[in-house]
Amino acid sequence: MEVKLRLDPDQIDRARQASADIAAEVDRFVASRTTVAVERTVLRLMGIDGVDAEGVPLPNVVVDHLRVREQLELGAATWVINAMLALGLNPQEIAEQVAVGALDLTRIPLRDRAEIRRKGAELARIGLDKIEANRNQRDELIARLGEGPKPYLYLIVATGDIYEDVVQGRAAARQGADIIAVIRSTGQSLIDYVPYGATREGYGGTYATQENFRIMRRALDEVGEEVGRYIRLCNYCSGLCMPEIAVMGALERLDVMLNDALYGILFRDINMQRTLIDQSFSRMINAYAGIMINTGEDNYLTTADAVESAHTVLASQFINEQLALLSGLRPQQMGLGHAFEMNPDLEDGLLMEIAQAQMARQIFPDAPLKYMPPTKHMTGNIFKGHIQDALFNLVSILTGQGVQLLGMMTEAMHTPHIHDRKLAIENAQYIFNNARHLGEEILFRPGGRIERRAQEVLAKAVAMLEEVRRIGLFTAIERGMFADVKRPLHGGRGLSGVLEKGEDYFNPFETELRQRLGLPNRGGEGDGDRLHTGEALRGRVE
Question: Where do the record's region annotations for Disordered lie (predicted)?
Answer without folding.
Answer: 517-542
